[in-house]
Specification:
Elements (H helix, E strand, L loop, with lengths): L7 H9 L10 E6 L7 H8 L12 E6 H5 L7 E5 L7 E4 L2 E4 L2 E7 L7 E5 L1 H13 L10 E7 L5 E6 L7 H19 L5 H8 L3 H5 L6 E4 L5 E4 L25 H31 L5 H21 L2 H13 L15 E5 L8
Parallel strand pairs: 1-8
Antiparallel strand pairs: 1-9, 2-3, 2-7, 4-5, 4-7, 6-8, 9-12, 10-11
Length: 353
């Protein structure tokens, strides 16, 4: 699943608008390995680490830059010596270290790309599991994030939570709003034209009156997609306009309607979403240091504010007009967002890198 978005274009727009530099992050990756011993040969065979030239049966310590590791280029690692007893499963980075058990947090940012990670045994394996999530993502050097590596974990996993995966990138929020605006356009049409609108956009009054904030969608334990929507007051502001218009007669009142949509749906829905994200992510990322969760939700709130400021009444009017102009030929459901978390479970000694 593609869960990383290149935010460079958005960042330029936001910085041009006078934004100060942010400490927010785009993603969180967590990966774990068990305490079951992992041989160097397993690392060579499965993750392409270099094979030691000596005949020692001990594990060896590998050194590799963070950028090369997260690109999955483990063949670029160098062997720095033998691992010592009691420190066979080792991760060291930027003055921090864990051995045999525990968690180590690495910040993914340009300042750290060239820094060296030292790993051995399950430390080398769990580093590869984190790379499973990041190595294939376009634009990763433009992102900032948190990588949490766990030794002696109860499960063998790598999990990613990201802004794009939660549907809360600038583009994702916009797609969700566009889906709601397609329902506004449908409800405005008279009995002659509404069936054609329904054929293409569906007829979902609930999106206008009860669910006009973009949803956060996540996977439940059963694997079914569940929708988390912030509590919203019932929005009846458009009821007097339902079913009144043909495409040609809407023009005279569309400016007034669009301002109502801006005030009563877009602004209210996005404000509610901004209040909801802290609770949502603090529950979903209970094991994460709260300061990092706050950095993730900080970026989300920046995205929400950016969309809120840019979806003015003219933009809304243009979206409604373009929806009506598209009457119809093919059934298209309203835009939805992707699952917020992406977890991979591994067999012992394996990763997909």
């Amino acid at each position: 699943m593609s869960v990383i978005l290149n935010f460079s274009k958005w960042k330029k727009l936001f910085e041009q608008a006078g934004s100060t530099p942010s400490t927010s992050i785009d993603f969180v990756i967590m990966a774990g390995a068990s305490a079951q011993p992992v041989s160097d040969q397993t690392l060579v065979d499965s993750q392409k680490y270099p094979k030691p030239s000596d005949t020692s049966s001990k594990n060896h310590i590998y050194e590799i830059s963070l950028a090369s590791a997260m690109a999955g280029n483990f063949s670029k690692a160098r062997i720095a010596g033998e691992a010592v007893k009691g420190r066979v499963d080792l991760i060291e980075f930027d003055g921090k270290s864990i051995n045999e058990s525990g968690k180590l947090t690495i910040e993914w940012n340009k300042d750290n790309f060239s820094k060296i990670v030292r790993v051995s045994g399950n430390g080398a394996l769990v580093l590869a599991r984190a790379a499973d999530k990041l190595s294939k993502k376009q634009g990763r050097v433009e992102l900032t994030g948190i990588i949490i590596l766990e030794l002696a974990s109860d499960s063998l996993y790598s999990t990613e939570w990201s802004i794009l995966g939660s549907g809360l990138s600038v583009e994702g929020i916009g797609r969700s709003l566009n889906g709601i605006l397609s329902q506004v356009a449908t409800q405005l049409m008279d009995a002659t034209h509404k069936p054609a609108m329904v054929e293409k956009w569906t007829d979902n009054l609930n999106l206008i009156e009860k669910r006009y904030s973009p949803a956060i969608i996540h996977s439940s334990d059963s694997g079914q997609l569940q929708k988390s929507v912030p509590p919203l007051p019932e929005n009846t502001a458009l009821r007097s306009f339902y079913g009144k218009y043909q495409p040609t007669t809407l023009k005279g009142e569309l400016a007034k309607i669009s301002q109502i949509v801006k005030t009563n749906m877009v602004d209210v829905g996005l404000a509610s979403l901004a209040q909801h994200v802290d609770k949502f992510f603090s529950e979903k990322l209970k094991e994460l240091d709260p300061s990092y969760t706050q950095q993730l939700t900080s970026k989300i709130k920046e995205n929400i504010d950016f969309v809120k400021n840019n979806y003015n009444s003219k933009v809304i009017s243009d979206k409604i007009k373009s929806t009506i102009a598209a009457i119809p030929s093919t059934t298209i459901a309203p835009s939805t967002v992707k699952t917020a978390s992406d977890t991979t479970i591994y067999n012992v000694g394996k990763s997909s890198v």
